[in-house]
Amino acid sequence: MISLFNQELTQPIPNGNIGYSVITSIEILSFKGLSSQEDNLIRSTLKTLIEVSLETTIADKTIQYKAKI
User: Fold this and answer.
1) Mind listing the pLDDT tens digit for each residue in 38-49?
2) Rounded Cα gap, residues 37 and 3, in angstroms
3) Chain-centre distance for alpha carbon 36
């Protein structure tokens, strides 16, 4: 996902349904120094993809961990 936003992909994305986990959105949207323009771009792109859900417990623990570092 980061390579997509950095335009570093070496091959085109295949046609079809593309998904990402909520952990991916946590990781890329919690990046320090992310500008509001970058945040908006990421969010609008993620809206076009399928979010694969995880158990709430896993997401909550990830958020707690990320908040500490």
Assistant:
1) 899 889 989 988
2) 17
3) 15
